[in-house]
Design goal:
The protein contains 22 helices and 20 strands. The protein is α/β, with parallel strands linked by helices and 692 residues long. Helix 6 crosses helix 20 and helix 20 crosses helix 21. The chain binds adenosine-5'-diphosphate and magnesium ion (MG).
Length: 692
């Protein structure tokens, strides 16, 4: 079969090598990628809604008008740095369009006197001119001319591409699709059942809607298609990983579990006891456990992992716990070693830093079964790590592992091992089902007694200096501190965001002069990160200037202060997880949220943290305030990002797709049709989950 859609975009007219690079930055490599690069959902230019500047609604909804470009002025402010203001006028008035950061590149193609079409949201301005934010501006051409009504797409672009260029090549690609044909990915019976338009029609109408109704139909089909393919891919993936193996039924709690309980320096809380009932019940069942243990930071999840590992060991099996970083794995080793003291159970740690001789010995004792508990990082996924009888897989802070990684660990057993996933992020049910399959959930509310309240304060930038002076006082008193920033590099283009490197350099020159501090971010090598974390844990580094990489369960009891720069950039649940890094020792701890955003809503949102200690409550607030899309990226689960569907808003469709996918895969002829469709999968995003 002629798979024209895998050809590079350079086969199209007007895309040379140089321009192809610009497309690559949008992750558009092939013709298929291009067709799947949907326009921005809320920015279509619908000429039936065209208004004059005077008529523009100032209610924050999407507006469209036409006018003459007067001038472009570059401005500078210390907070947002470079930005540009474009002045457009028509017979009824003036409008000011604001462009920040990388968006300003679009403006290079504009000249005074040009006729332009503008979309955006209008706010009341200080002057007579209307103020337009989130604006797009397109020079008027034949397409946007008044004589051609209809609806035009607006794409998200990088610097060197224009809307017209993208529209032209998408049109070419659509013409090619019409000529060469486009395979279906959704079985015909389902297309019929839901009266979906065929694929080509849907793509045509998502890019160049013939009417508002045609657009809605196209969108309805493509949302379904995304979720359906995702479900099918996940189900095939699971079949592949768990096929044919039976589970293990562990006996009722025995001597080892009792001994670990006895070794704990505390009593289990009610929540922990209930969680243990769920977990031990699952482990005693021959059906493999697949359980998500959700509990706020500090709710005491580790104990449950320890009990489950004890249960596996006392039944003669092995257990493995995987943590996302070396330092977390090291902390688990220390905790578990103390919980298992006097039991004779062997525990080992395997990371990428493990010395070859030690590694060899670990692998041998795993293979002969004499090692019962393995703690590790991604290093445990390597091919040559083989267990003799693995019956339990625990992953900690799961959202840092992908679907395939989890599958690979579970595949290391002759049985279908019991799987326990521990997370501090409250994950909505639909998302959990999507990401983890048929999973049971245990939620641990509250915290064990004895944890200290973290004093949380919120200040605007004018207090910055005072806040940092406070930090120096903490350090003089022998404590340590975190400074958390929202971005790694300035070039990430977020307006007004101080990058971690910038903050680090500045602090080192000023308030922290002479105080040992270190920089930590996600683009460093794992070994380098671990080294820095260890130095901080050991106390030789006093201040850690970092990004959200510290979010995951690091434990440094001597750290008593966390300062978050540009705090408005974070979600409440995320800030709550971050502040969980302090307040772990005997000293009173503080979390200071700094923001330059004086918007009353923003400040109100941040003060919620001052008043609440409950991660689950905060996550709920987040959902209400910020919407679902922003909070849960699929990519961090190793899944393709969705372009049109919203896992939380499109719950109904998602559940329908789950059922349809199950049905399609269980009926031989449907399954064949589906696999044929996916084997020449058109959308390369999904190739990863289908081919694993
Ligand atoms: P997380 O759920 O964030 O992984 P941990 O398992 O690290 O939480 O537990 C946080 C702290 O609470 C640890 O210091 C642990 O020893 C302590 N802890 C756990 N369970 C109890 C309990 N039942 N009573 C008192 N302290 C507890
Ligand atoms: Mg933990």
């Amino acid at each position: 079969m002629d798979v024209w859609w895998t050809e590079p975009v350079t086969v199209l007219k007007g895309i040379g090598k140089k321009r192809a690079e610009a497309f690559e930055r949008l992750e558009i490599h092939t013709l298929g990628d291009l067709l799947n690069y949907y326009p921005r959902t809320d920015s279509y230019i619908d000429f039936s809604h065209l208004k004059t500047i005077r008529e523009l609604a100032v209610d924050g909804s999407q507006q469209i008008f036409r006018g003459e470009l007067m001038n472009v002025t570059d401005r500078y402010s210390p907070r947002v740095r470079q930005y540009s203001v474009v002045l457009v006028r028509d017979d009824t008035g003036y409008a000011e369009l604001y462009f920040f950061g990388a968006q300003r590149y679009y403006l290079r193609h504009l000249k005074p006197g040009m006729a332009v079409v503008v979309t955006g949201r209008v706010k009341p301005g200080r002057s007579a001119a209307k103020v337009v934010s989130e604006a797009t501006i397109t020079p008027q051409d034949e397409e946007t001319d008044a004589s051609s009504p209809g609806i035009l797409p607006v794409y998200s672009l990088t610097e060197s591409l224009t809307q017209q260029q993208l529209r032209t090549v998408v049109k070419q690609a659509l013409a090619l699709a019409a000529e060469k044909g486009l395979p279906e990915t959704v079985p015909a019976s389902l297309l019929q059942r839901y009266r979906f338009p065929d694929r080509l029609t849907a793509l045509r109408n998502i890019h160049f809607p013939a009417s508002a109704a045609a657009f809605r139909e196209a969108r309805r089909r493509l949302v379904y298609e995304e979720l359906f393919l995702l479900q099918c891919g996940l189900m095939l993936n699971r079949e592949h990983n768990y096929d044919g193996r039976s589970g293990v039924n562990h006996d009722r709690d025995g001597a080892l579990v009792k001994q670990v309980l006895h070794n704990l320096p505390f009593q289990l809380t009610v929540a922990q006891k209930q969680a243990w009932q769920d977990i031990s019940g699952d482990m005693e069942d021959v059906k493999p456990m697949n359980r998500l243990l959700q509990g706020d930071v500090g709710s005491g999840k580790t104990v449950l992992a320890a009990l489950a590992l004890a249960k596996a060991a006392e039944n003669g099996y092995q257990g493995c716990i995987m943590a996302p970083t070396g330092i977390l794995a090291q902390q688990h080793l220390e905790t578990l070693t103390s919980f298992f003291r006097g039991t004779g159970v062997r525990i080992a740690l395997l990371t990428s830093n493990t010395k070859p001789a030690e590694r060899r010995e670990i692998l041998e004792s795993l293979a002969d079964g004499s090692l019962q508990i393995l703690i590790g990082t991604h290093a445990v996924l390597q091919e040559d790590v083989q267990f003799r009888c693995l019956s339990l897989v625990v992953t900690d802070e799961q959202h840092r592992f992908g679907v395939n990684q989890r599958g690979r660990l579970a595949a290391k057993s002759d049985f279908a091992p019991d799987v326990l996933i521990m997370t501090a992020t409250p994950i909505p049910r639909t998302l959990a089902l999507t990401v983890y399959g048929d999973i049971e959930t245990t939620v641990m509310r509250g915290r064990p007694p004895g944890r200290k309240h973290i004093e949380t304060l919120c200040y605007t930038g004018d207090m910055r200096r005072k806040v940092y002076e406070g930090m120096v006082r903490q350090i003089r008193a022998g404590r340590q501190a975190y400074v958390v920033c929202a971005s790694i590099e300035e070039s990430e283009g977020l307006e007004g965001v101080r990058s971690v490197t910038e903050v680090y350099e500045e602090l080192k020159r000023t308030v922290l002069h002479g105080i040992p501090c270190a920089l930590l971010h996600g683009r460093m090598k794992p070994a380098e990160k671990d080294g820095i974390m260890e130095a901080f844990a050991a106390g030789s580094v006093k201040v850690l200037v970092t990004t959200t990489v510290v979010e995951v369960g690091v434990n440094v009891p001597n750290a008593t202060l966390m300062i978050v720069e540009n705090a408005d950039r974070f979600g409440l649940a995320q800030l709550h997880q971050l502040r969980g890094r302090v307040g772990r020792g005997e000293h009173q701890s503080y979390c200071v949220l700094l923001t330059d955003n004086k918007d009353p809503d923003t400040l109100a949102r941040l003060t919620v943290l001052h008043n609440s200690d409950d991660g689950f409550e905060l996550a709920q607030k987040d959902l209400e305030l910020r919407g679902a899309g922003q909070l849960f990226g699929l990519r961090q689960h190793g899944l393709p990002d969705l372009r049109l569907a919203d896992i939380l808003k499109d719950t109904d469709v998602l559940l329908k797709c789950r059922k349809d996918a199950q049905e399609a895969l269980s009926k031989p002829d449907l399954r064949k049709e589906l696999l044929a469709g996916t084997s020449n999968l058109f959308d390369s995003r999904f190739a990863g989950i289908f081919n694993s």
